[in-house]
Amino acid sequence: MFENLTAGPLPSLNALRAFEAMARTGRATLAAQELYVTHSAVSRQVKALEQTLGVRLFTGPKHRLELTAAGQALLPALTGAFDEIAAAVRRVRSDGEDLHLAVNASLSVKWLIPRLPAFAGAHPEVRLHLAELAPQATAHRGAQAVVRIVPAGRLAEPLVTGFMPNHIGPVLAPHLAERHAADPLLAPRLAAQSHPQGWAIWAAVAGVELPPAPERPFAHLHFAMDAALAGLGVAVMPWPLVADYIAAGRLAAPFGFRKAESAFAILAAPGAETRALTRFRNWLVAEGAKTPAPPGPG
């Protein structure tokens, strides 16, 4: 019935989705999480797509894949097409009152979710759906917007709205700070694998050379933060995530906080604007403005 609609057979939709997700997130495992399949299924679909097209889409070792010229040409068209499909489905399903967001796990757990009752109370008509945003991703399939820390240079982009500046500093439990009063940086160093440059960035902005210290790795910032609360070591944290804990005396910040070249922001997907998204963005900006100024170095 449809054999004459195209000049040739289109590739499998599943294969195109697998490639787009893998190319956008940079890893088969992250694409698999987004698509709710196994990473081997993603890899098989991408290989099948390469065979159908007769070109390589990725090059390099598995742990550091890069797009070929063909992959770079294909990705933006697919991302735009899938975004438009997702936006159309949302409009038909919800008349604009469902709001789908993707948020970095640590920001969601330690800052956003504790504040969501206030948003729900002010906007009961908005049905909020939260998904986890991969650590380095700036988009998520099906999400109208993502919430994460971005480089300060991105704040000028039309779809990016900053809602809090970012200040970072080392934090540790008060009893551990007393034990290492001579130099808190000699305490075990808690490192978040989702933000591997955290310590190096703080050392650079603080003008500090980090002394040798045992390192304890954790998958996420909020894991490292909970480890700091438990007295396992010292962790570099963004001020908004720890402000309440420092005010309550559960964490100490012996070096204060330094302004980083980044900010907390909401990034809207192209064509995703709805009443619900506008209301959430305005609430987010107002909520971020309530964050007290961090203690400076001293």
Task: Note down, in words, how this protein is organized.
This protein has helices at 13-25, 28-35, 39-53, 69-94, 105-122, 174-179, 198-206, 221-229, 239-247, 275-289; strands spanning 58-59, 66-67, 98-104, 127-133, 145-151, 160-171, 189-192, 215-218, 234-238, 258-268. 43% of the residues lie in helices and 20% in strands. The strands form two sheets. Strands 4-3-5-10-6-9-7-8 form an eight-stranded mixed sheet, sandwiched between helices. The protein has a two-stranded antiparallel ribbon with strand order 1-2. The chain has three domains: 13-89, Arc Repressor Mutant, subunit A (Orthogonal Bundle); 96-163 and 262-289, D-Maltodextrin-Binding Protein, domain 2 (3-Layer(aba) Sandwich); 167-261, Periplasmic binding protein-like II (D-Maltodextrin-Binding Protein, domain 2). It is an alpha/beta fold and 298 residues long. The chain contains ten helices and ten strands.
